[in-house]
Amino acid sequence: MINRDNYHAIKAYLRYQTEVLQRDPTTVCRHKLWLNHLLRWADTTTFADASDIRPVFPQYLLAGPCVNGQLTTPGVKRTCQGARAFFQWLNQARTASFPAITSSSWIETLRPPRLPAEPHKDHEAVTLEMVRALLAVTPNDLRTRRDKAAVAFLFLSGMRATAFCTLTLQCVDVASRAIKQFPTMGVKTKNLKAAVTYLYGIRDLLEVIAEWDTFLREHMPPNAHWFPRIEAPFGMQRLSTDPPGKIRRKGLNDGLKILFEQAGLTPMTAHSFRHGHALFGLKRARDVGDLKAVSMNLMHESLSITDGIYAIFSDNDLGERLARLSEDSGEDNERVEDALR
Questions:
Q1: Deepest of 20, 209, 290, 318, by most Cβ within 10 A of its Cβ?
Q2: Contact 282, 312 (CB under 8 A)
Q3: Which helix H or strand E contains 33, and what residues bound it?
Q4: Residue 29 Cα to chain centre, angstroms
């Protein structure tokens, strides 16, 4: 049975995340999932006495949710971090209903246990070749034209799906390849970040984007969305000015799935285009400045975040590059041996 006061404490914390820290709903939802483990762990014991509960929270995660396949190694880490942040808030927001825990130093013990490293997994990423195969799909009805333009835009921009679905014509300047990802203009970015980002200059993909952009501006008002809803009354497709709904992202992924199937490719989600954008740029970067540019275009706080998420080289890339280094070394060794003869 869940302790009622514990439940209300977590509800108050989630409201704090939303109203004071102004975190986006997706982030708050993730925190809620992590803290559900905390509620089940404490059971009927009040959070004020959490330091007396056995097993301790990190060990509980290993013995319970991890075994059942609910949490991965990164999941255990994030859940422990979420629990630590919650208890730090609880001690600061102490009230009669939410008393501070009896041992404040115990909070620092909420750290993930050492776990065996999981094998590296390359990100599922769309390649430029895949994008061109998707753009070659026929027929070219209105919905297909829209979805093909989305394919080109997602790859060249690296935008998150939610931001893309809320992007208006006012935010797009195809001529300069600039995209205004501004929450004040209705774009729903992660953590309400704002930035001007840019499209890669791949000519054939830009032509698809420019054609769709011109078509939209001829038929839609400036505040219309770049990825508009399409209605089909009596089988006749037409553009809609309806604002993006909660399922617009699902509509985007559904359209992409159809394109992948028509192209004879394994379907991938909209987020795979973001991975493809990142890897395309990182693999072609010539110096730290190029790496930083890719990181900024992804709207990451720092280059270390980009490197940590994507890593520049996949396992195959790493093997190929080391093989080339070995070959170069062999040629150098031969030149040295010739000189010594």
A1: 209
A2: yes
A3: helix 25-42
A4: 15
Buried b (16+ CB within 10 A) or exposed e, 188-199: bbeeeeeeebbb
Q: How far is it, in rounded angstroms, from Cα 252 to Cα 234?
A: 22
Residue with tokens 């080391």: 322
Q: How far apart are alpha carbons 330 and 61 in whole angstroms? A: 50
From first CA to last CA, the distance across the chain in angstroms is 83
Q: Position 288: which residue type?
A: V
332 Cβ contact partners less than 8 Å away, ≥ 6 residues apart: none
310-326, pLDDT tens digit by residue? 766 666 676 776 677 66
Which secondary structure element, helix H or strand E, spans residue 60, and what is its range? helix 57-63
Alpha-carbon distance of 252 to 270, in angstroms, equals 7
The pair of structure tokens assigned to 82 is 């979420």
Torsion of CA 281, 284, 290, 296, to 10 degrees: 10
Quote the strand ranges of the chain, DSSP E.
Answer: 172-173, 178-181, 195-198, 230-231, 238-239
Between helix 4-19 and helix 25-42 the angle, nearest 10°, is 160
Q: Which of 29-33, 215-219, 229-233 has the highest mean pLDDT?
A: 215-219
Q: DSSP letter at 307?
A: H
Helix axes 203-219, 128-135, angle to 10 degrees: 50
Quick check: 60 pLDDT over 60? yes
Which residues fall within 8 angstroms of residue 92, CB to CB, at 6 or more apart?
none
pTM of the predicted model as reported, rounded to 2 decimal places? 0.72
Exposed e or buried b for every residue in 25-63, given b needs 16+ CB within 10 A? Answer: eeebeebeebbebbeebbeeebbbebbeeeeebbebbee
pLDDT score of 94 more than 80: no
The sign of the CA dihedral 234, 237, 242, 245 is positive
With 0-12 / 13-18 / 19 or more C-beta atoms within 10 angstroms meaning exposed / middle / buried, residue 165 is buried
